[in-house]
Every structure is written in structure tokens, then in C-alpha cells.
Amino acid sequence: MAEICSHLDQITVDMPGEVAGCEECLKIGAQWVHLRVCRSCGKVGCCDSSPNKHASAHAREEDHPIMSSLEPGEDWSYCFVDEVAFIVD
Ligand SMILES: [Zn+2]
Ligand SMILES: [Zn+2]
Ligand SMILES: [Zn+2]
Fold first, then answer.
1. Residues 87, 33: Cα–Cα separation, whole Å
2. What is the DSSP string of 1-22?
3. Based on CB atoms within 10 Å of each CB, which residue in 12, 33, 63, 69 is the most buried?
4. What pairing do the DSSP bridges indicate for beta strands 44-46 and 66-69?
């Protein structure tokens, strides 16, 4: 794992339980497709299949590299810096 992503030490937030949805989409009344959570600060955003792509926008703007999928049954994470998907314990 450490070989493909050098940012695992930036995972400081546990996976949330119930979430209402993409925080930014809820504010503007937009729709989303899939949800991601930032593992540096816990912000919930929407995936790149969603019209507003809030998760990747957040990663870029805040310099928070790692997002994890919040979809049921999915346990992968993605590093926007290394552009690699992986599974963390
Ligand atoms: Zn990385
Ligand atoms: Zn969104
Ligand atoms: Zn963040």
C-alpha cells in the first residue's frame, strides 16, 4: 500500500455512519450520483459522475488527497495526488 500511495498518514478521520448526502449539493439543492468522504477532514462530497463533482473539487481546493467511497458494499479509497485506488483496513 505504501508503495502506491504516500499519503496514508493523512487519513485522520474514520468513516462516518449515516450521512445526509453531499454537503454542497444539499446547500444548493443539486443531485448527486455517488458519495465520497474526505479522510483528512470528514467532508462528504459527490463523485465525478455527479454534475458538481464536489469530492474532487474539495480534494483540489483543500489539498486533501484521499477520498473513500461511501457507497454500501464498497470499501475502496482513492488518492487524488497519486491517482490510485486502494483499500485501507
Ligand atoms: Zn497518495
Ligand atoms: Zn455534490
Ligand atoms: Zn477534506
1. 21
2. -TTT-S-GGG--SPPPSS--S-
3. 69
4. unpaired
- Centre of ligand 3 to C-alpha 54, Å, is 11
Q: Which ligand gives the minimal distance to the CA of 3?
A: 1
Q: Identify the segments of the chain with pLDDT beneath 50.
A: 1-2
pLDDT at 4: 86
Q: Quote the ligand 3 centre to 3 CA distance (angstroms).
A: 23
- Distance (angstroms) between ligand 3 centre and the Cα of 73 equals 22
Question: Within a 10 A sphere around the Cβ of 58, how many other Cβ atoms?
Answer: 24
% residues pLDDT > 70 (the chain): 96
0.70 cut: is pTM over it?
yes
